[in-house]
Amino acid sequence: MAMDVTDAKLLKGIVLFAVLGLVVYYYPFSWPFESYQVLQEKMDRVQQEIEPVKGKFGEVYDPPPPNVWDPYAPASETEHLARMTTVAERKTEYEQVNAKLREEIAKLQKDSRMNFADWCTIPEAERQVGTYWITKYEVLCKALERETRNAGVILMDPYIGFNDVSNHTLTREQAQDELRKLHIADTIIRLCVKAKKEEEEEKRRAGLRPEAYMRIIKVVPQKSDKTGPQEPEINPEYDPKILNPNDKRFDKFVMKKYPEFIKQYPVEILLQCDLHSFRKFLQAVRTPGQFLVIRSLKVVSPLIQESQRNTLDYEQIKGDYAAIAGKDAMQTFGHEDSHIWVRLSASGMDFFEPKEPVVASQGEAGDDGVPSMFRKPGKGVKVEPAGH
């Protein structure tokens, strides 16, 4: 039967829609629209890229509704509404979490901070800051000389590591830094005295004869330095074929440095003492408010096999002793089997607000308003080689 006009129009419409469907699906150009096939390929790529994000998201946040990650998953309107929160609720939650975090940071800083004496802070009304520092130094040296003598502790360097204190032209910041170094030296000497006294008292309570011995050969308060956290990461430019250590491609790892917010006040002390007094001294050094960072520790004794094999440390100690006591006094450089020589480098800490912006955590906006999850790696941090 021949087609009438209506059938012809219907057939043409079907063909037209079929052609239009093929064009929409396979359209090869990106203007004025993209084909369904291209959009589907883009969706698949996005799904692959989002896979690693899902794991990190789950470590911090509750799992979202299934259709958030999978557009083909059935959406549950009830579940979605149950999870919805207002901006005000989110802000309150954010502020509570940050307040708790600030409290934890403040507690950790308090436990780790060196308890500097009040006299380390120069009064605002004081104009002669250099004179203030020199006066405090002289008074403290006399007090330490008296206390060590009364405790039977030998303090060989009456200047406690400060060779020149005659500078009256120090700035307020310089004078305050010197006062903190003075506090460091004073503290570690008093800990030596405290350790010897405790050892003597312990022996007396046990009905034994006290044999504690403590000789402070040298105390050297060192220049304060600022530090911050560091984190190793893979060097994206690493090339195992590079043999030049000065080439940035030589190191497999680089250190990512964050803004500095820690100020360390290191001090080195050289002791000759008995083992039991040293144990008490070391325990006191590590208590809160004291020197929580031990940079290095060397113990030398004629009874230690390593000291017998390698005499370099022993010879260095003899040289330091001679520099303090004078070569003519080297006959006093004796020891008993129960004595050890200790070279300890410790550090007290203080904290300050970092001057550079800290890199925001994932999803948190930095100073430039860009969340770190969209930020290129390395922004806001310094990167240095960390070894091959």
How would you describe this structure to a colleague?
This protein is an alpha+beta fold. The protein has a domain at 115-385. It has ten helices and nine strands. The strands form two sheets. Strands 1, 2, 3, 6, 7 and 8 form a six-stranded mixed sheet that branches. A three-stranded antiparallel sheet has the order 4-5-9, with no helix packed on it. Strand 1 (154-155), helix 7 (172-205) and strand 2 (214-221) form a beta-alpha-beta unit. Helix 6 (129-151) packs parallel to helix 7 (172-205) and helix 7 packs across helix 8 (275-285). The radius of gyration is 35 Å and the shape is elongated. The relative contact order is 0.09. Mean pLDDT is 78; it is low at 357-383.
Q: What general outline do the C-alpha atoms trace? A: elongated
**So how many helices?**
10
Which range does the strand content fall in? 15-25%
CA(first)-CA(last) distance:
86 Å
Number of DSSP strand runs: 9
Structural class call reads alpha+beta
SSE order, as H and E?
Answer: HHHHHHEHEEEEEHEHHEE
In round numbers, the mean pLDDT is 78
Q: Summarize the main sheet.
A: 6 strands, mixed
List low-pLDDT spans. 357-383
Radius of gyration (Å): 35 Å
**Fraction of residues in H or I helices:** 40-55%
